[in-house]
Amino acid sequence: MSNLRETYKWIDEYNDKKLTPSPAAARFIEIVFDGERYESKALEHAQFRTTLPFARTECFAANFIDVHQLINNDANESIKNVYELTLQIKNKVIDYSPGDTIGILPQNSDEVVNVIIDKGSELKAKCHDSLHLKISAEAATQKRVPKMPIFLPACQTSLYKLFQECVDFHAFPKKGFLSALVNYNCLSDATERRFLSILASREGSALYTTEIFQQQTTFYALLNRLHSWTFTIENVAVLLEHLPRLMPRPYSISNSPLTTESSIDYDGQSTILKVIFSLNNPPGITTRMLQQLIFKYEVELTLKLDTRDQFVNAYTRQSNHFQLTNGDLERPLIMIAIGTGVAPFIGFLEHIQEQRKRKHTKKSFTWLIFGCRYKNKQICGERLSEFVKDGTLSKLSECFSRDANTKTKYVQDCVRNEATEISNLLTDATGGIASKVFICGNKKMSTDIRTAVEESLVKAAQCSAIDDAKLIVDELVKSGRYIEDIWI
Fold it and tell me: Which range (214-228, 256-270, 367-381, 416-430) has the least confidence?
């Protein structure tokens, strides 16, 4: 966000202008204190009993039972640290398929929450007191009674828990929210109130675009940028009314439901789930939480203390068709991934390996095209080599974008280099069971792969023009044979 001098410049430019403020919704949430300290249910996140996005199961507590660092960046900022986290859901058997995902409920850090709490003496005094939320009496008499946001708990909670586990302070503030902050006296300084009023006005649209969208200014950045915030018990509910949900973070399950590690004392009455994730710099809300929990877990493990208090709240999400079904076990499979996008394919290959051991399926062709930056920092490199060695993985094509002497740098280049084989598989030119292609990576990668596949179809003479190739891929998508799992 702009510095103080630029802020005052903007205010001076709008000094003589009449502002047309964005309408701010009327207040509707009332905070009712219960007259006692909040007794937290240790294993329950504030959103534990709320309606969770894309939920297939109820929420559950998943305990840490193993942490393995797959990649150490050795202080090289171009490489991300990568971890494999093993979770146990005790006394609960959860049915899932390779490729399914879990949603992990995040927490804002204490540092973030305290920025809010420190803005008012009332909040400091009562932030851990028990309360419940209700629709205010005035709002309840309106013709259209507002509804409580579905991510806010109906049970007893506390301000601290609401701020830590329910609302996203890192969201971009909308104009109506900025107007509400001014209307309900959340800033004591007249100049700072004027600045927010300009941002929220029709006349200040150019300023809003520059200061909020172009400079990626979140509400948390505003909290630290302006200095006269004054939150009270009377006005703090405006944050609950306007800030969006602190969204659960989806992670692909990276193990087969048929396998468990031999080192785990598995009791047969629980579920073991593994997830693989990387740490951005700076890390996101959920990965920062996981990083802190992993640190505590490793300290407790080193000191031979009880590690059972290290857990996350999670749930299994509805399938988006990116999963290995029983019908896929004997068909040719092409799997394309970059980075941690390989996680679901580790689960795929584990499942195929176990099914073949049990003689539940015949051997079929499996091909993984996998890209990362450096050969010596490859995620699950040894595991992939083992899959190749025992025949679970028929073909492994590796791409390393930062290695100078690598043959192929990017996965889309590999697709082009293997145009004939890929085209034959996709168009069933080899006969037999129709193949499937699964792609896991970011949006740019998925776009590049699709372009490379279309070009490969033309190059291999499966069609004469790109427009025809696009139609072939479109048909593969419609028939469920070209499936993507894309992150932003």
Answer: 256-270
Kindly report the pTM of this predicted structure. Answer: 0.93
| Coil vs helix vs strand at 344 | helix
The pLDDT of residue 256 is: 95
List C-alpha distances in Å: 37 to 126, 127, 454, 482.
9, 9, 62, 54
Cβ(63)–Cβ(297) below 8 Å: no
pLDDT above 90: residue 85 = yes
Residues in the chain: 488
Residue 309 corresponds to which tokens in the numbers above?
């208090």
In the block, tokens 């003689």 appear at: 359
The CATH code belonging to domain 4-40+108-242 is: 1.20.990.10
Phi, psi of 266 (to 5 degrees): -85, 125
250 preceded by cis ω (within 30°)? no
Scan for tokens 């293997």, then name that residue: 418
Write the pLDDT tens digit of every residue in 313-353. 999 999 888 999 999 998 999 999 999 999 999 999 999 99
Nearest partner of 152 among 139, 142, 165, judged by Cα: 165
Distance (Å, rounded) from C-alpha 473 to C-alpha 481? 9
> What CATH code would you report for 60-106+248-316?
2.40.30.10
What pLDDT band is residue 250 in, cutting at 50, 70 and 90?
A: very high
Question: Which helix or strand (DSSP H or E) is residue 414 part of?
Answer: helix 411-417
Mean pLDDT of the chain: 91
The DSSP output letter for 377 is G
Q: What architecture is domain 326-487?
A: 3-Layer(aba) Sandwich (3.40)
| Residue 338 β-bridge partners | 371
Q: How far apart are CA 249 and CA 103, in angstroms?
A: 5
CATH 1.20.990.10 residue ranges of the chain are 4-40+108-242
